[in-house]
Specification:
Length: 208
């Protein structure tokens, strides 16, 4: 490895460390290490390979939501969880997951629009998601004071996806739910038939 390339790799590591949870886009890194995007990708790959090959390093370079981050290796997560569990555990309720899904698929979106989907007040749920940094303000509605919300980098890191495009389509979710309901209905019908046979048998015994 040339001295120049090694220097750029070291600068890249420093940039990603300082960026923290915000991460850096390819363009930002390219500007920071004064390289073309093609050369920057090679430099990123070098740092990723260095982290991956060295078992004594607890870090890695990850790519989420079109940004690069320095993250901890997954095999160290059980140890980190013991110390940081209270800070990192999302503990999302069903309502929170519902609102999070709406924001992920339809964001940027306002609280009013979220409530139109759900039919109930969502102020507390939105506040809770924002306090966990899994959603963030994306701006304001035109000619209105309402904030618009979108999912944050924490969302992409938590669910290990690069972009919203990686989420299953709404159509697939609906079809999967219909299949689950069909299976559930079939199971109920089988159980009902078995119960009817038991009832008939008990009736016959009581009449004999």
């Amino acid at each position: 490895m040339s001295k120049e390339l090694n220097e750029k790799k070291t600068i890249l590591e420093s940039l990603l460390f300082i960026a923290g949870d915000e991460g850096l886009s390819l363009s930002e890194i390219s500007d920071g290490i004064l390289s073309s995007k093609k050369q920057t990708l090679k430099t990123i790959k070098l740092l990723q390979d260095e982290y991956a090959k060295d078992s004594n390093k607890g870090l890695n370079v990850a790519h989420f939501n079109n940004k690069y981050f320095i993250v901890t290796k997954s095999n160290f997560h059980p140890y980190l969880k013991k110390v940081f569990d209270r800070k990192t555990n999302l503990n999302l309720s069903v309502a929170s997951l519902e609102v999070l899904a709406i924001i992920a698929y339809y964001g940027p979106i306002s609280r009013r629009q979220i409530e139109q989907f759900r039919g109930v007040n969502s102020d507390g749920v939105v506040y809770n998601l924002k306090s966990k940094d899994i959603i963030e303000v994306a701006g304001k509605e035109e000619n209105k004071r309402s904030f618009l919300y979108k999912v944050s980098n924490v969302f992409f890191q938590t669910f290990q996806i690069n972009s919203i495009d990686d989420l299953p389509s709404i159509e697939k979710i609906i079809n999967d739910n219909k299949q689950d309901e069909s299976i559930f209905d079939t199971q109920i019908n089988i159980e009902d038939e078995e119960q009817d046979k038991i009832n008939e048998s008990q009736a016959e015994q009581s009449n004999s």
